Amino acid sequence: QVQLVESGGGLVQPGGSLRLSCAASGSIFRAYAMGWYRQAPGKQRELVAVITSSSSKNYADSVKGRFTISRDNAKKAVYLQMNSLKPEDTAVYYCNADHELLQGYDFWGQGTQVTVSS
After folding, report:
1. Cα distances (Å, whole numbers) of residue 87 to 11, 12, 25, 47
2. Within 13 Å of residue 112, how many CA atoms lie on the same side as its CB?
3. What is the Cα–Cα distance from 40 to 29, expressed in whole angstroms?
4. How far apart (Å, rounded) are the C-alpha atoms in residues 86 and 88?
5. How far apart are CA 19 and CA 7, in angstroms?
6. Average pLDDT score over the chain
7. Torsion of CA 85, 70, 78, 112, to 10 degrees
8. Contact 38, 115 (CB under 8 A)
9. Sign of CA dihedral 36, 25, 81, 115
10. What pLDDT was estimated at residue 67?
11. Residues 60-98: tens digit of each pLDDT
């Protein structure tokens, strides 16, 4: 079992930056691929970025070059640095932990709101 708590969301102007954090507790953190997803009003949840246990990273095309995902296994934390934010980045951002070897070990945080507006 993994518990995830996101923080760092808020209101920011277009072109600004935010850093989201996700603190994990419970299971062996390093065995999980960690991801950030987002869901805007009226839209489906979508993958933003993922980092595997070996720190391989993948990003949605819409955030490449602007967002950076990282993890700290010692602190059981994953981060999302978001730069050059756009209004279309407005969404609730969710942290996800997905065990890389075991099926069904997939956990979500409660989400943190990011609003990009002038």
Report:
1. 11, 9, 32, 17
2. 19
3. 28
4. 5
5. 9
6. 95
7. 10
8. no
9. positive
10. 98
11. 999 999 999 999 999 999 999 999 999 999 999 999 999
- For residue 97, give the H/E element and its range: strand 91-99
Asked whether the beta carbons of 67 and 58 are under 8 A apart, the reply is no
| 77-82/106-108 β-pairing | unpaired
Name the token pair of 73. 């296994």
Q: What angle do CA 87, 113, 53 make, to 5 degrees?
A: 100
What is the rounded average pLDDT of the residues 12-38?
Answer: 94
Burial class (CB in 10 A: 0-12, 13-18, 19+), 39: middle
